Amino acid sequence: MEDNSPSNGVETPLLDNFVNGSVDYKGRPVLRSKSGFWRSAYFIIGVEVAERFAYYGVSSNLITYLTVSLGLSTATAAENVNMWVGTAALLPLLGGFIADAYLGRYLTIIYASVLYIMALGLLALSTLVPSETVVGASSNSPQLQVIMFFVSLYLVAFAQGGHKPCLLAFGADQFDTNDQKECRAKSSFFNWWYFGMCSGPVLGIFILCYIQENLSWGLGFAIPCIVMGFALVIFSLGSMTYRFAKKTENKTAFVRIGRVFGEAARNWRNKSSELCVEAQACDTLPNYHDPVQFRFLEKALLTPDESNECGTVCSINEVEEAKSVLRLVPIWASCLAYSVVLSQTTTFFTKQGATMDRSIGSSFEIPAAALQSFIGVSILLLIPIYDTVFVPIIRTFTKKPSGITMLQRIGTGMFISIVLMIVSALVETKRLKTAREYGLQDDPNSTVPIKIWWLLPQYLLAGAADIFTVVGMQEFFYDQVPSELRSVGLALYLSVSGVGNFLSSFIISIVEKTTGGNGQDSWIADNMNQGHIDYFYYLLAVISAVAFMVYLYAAKSYVYNGGRSCS
Question: What is the pTM of this model?
Answer without folding.
Answer: 0.69
